[in-house]
Amino acid sequence: MSIFSRISMGGLTVAAAFAAFSIAAAQTLEAPVDPGAPSEFEAPVDPGAPTEFEAPVDPGAPTEFEAPMEPDATMEPGSPLEPDATVAPAAPAAPQRITNPVAEFAGIDKITGRIITFDVYIDETVQFGALQVTPRICYSRPQTEEPKTDSFVEVDEITLDRKIRRIFTGWMFAESPGLNAVEHAVYDVWLKGCKQKSEVPAPDAAKTN
User: Fold this and answer.
1) Per-residue pLDDT for 103 more than 60?
2) Domain locations in the chain?
3) Alpha helices in 96-176 (DSSP H)
4) pLDDT of 117-141, one tens digit each?
């Protein structure tokens, strides 16, 4: 056998030895794996045990936001939570007003510039110039309250042909005389106040005398 043949045989022997060493090393590094065993990063889990974020819950125990109540517990009468307890709202105090038998008016004659004050009893008609004034009601307020005096008045005009024409029907206010004053071509009339009595005799007294 030649030298080349021996070298070749020696090379085959070395290659076979290296292959056997590689197989043994691979078997040493790869450990057998048990399919049922947990891996290195997975802890064993008990199916019946609660997880880390879930606390065990008792079905009969009250929740955090529900306080336990006794089935037989009843509310005491007068309790603020009693369904039948009702509170009646306080009625607002009605403004007091005084009914007066006399209405006091003021009138001006624009031709002469003369201002006249005259009293008229309720449902009585008094003539001022060419106007006839008839108050139907006259209200005032007590002195303890804010002044407010008003009267419902009807005013008629006697025309040149002696006919009567209604020129005003409504409320007059003593605190605002210019609000609903009667403005005529010659005569103006407005409310000054309400009275309980007057120096002028009442219409019934005048008829009796």
Assistant:
1) yes
2) 98-200
3) none
4) 999 999 999 999 999 999 999 999 9
187 confidence band (pLDDT: 50, 70, 90): very high
Residue 209 has pLDDT above 80, yes or no: no
DSSP state of 57: -
Q: Find, among 126, 139, 130, the residue nearest to 110 by Cα.
A: 130
d(CA 135, CA 190) in angstroms, rounded, equals: 11
CA angle in degrees (0–180, nearest 5) for 109-111-116: 20
Question: Nearest CA to 100 among 153, 138, 135, 134?
Answer: 138
Could you give the CA distance from residue 129 to residue 161 in angstroms, rounded to a whole number?
15
CA distance 127 to 131: 6
Mean pLDDT estimate for the chain? 74
Q: Which residues of 106-141 are buried (b: 16+ CB within 10 A; e: fewer)?
A: bbbeeeeeeeeebbbbbebebebbebbbbbeebbbb
Residue 150 has pLDDT above 50, yes or no: yes
Q: Decide: helix, strand or coil at residue 77.
A: coil
Q: Which H or E run contains 10?
A: helix 3-29
Provide the CB-side half-sphere exposure for 158 (13 A, CA): 9
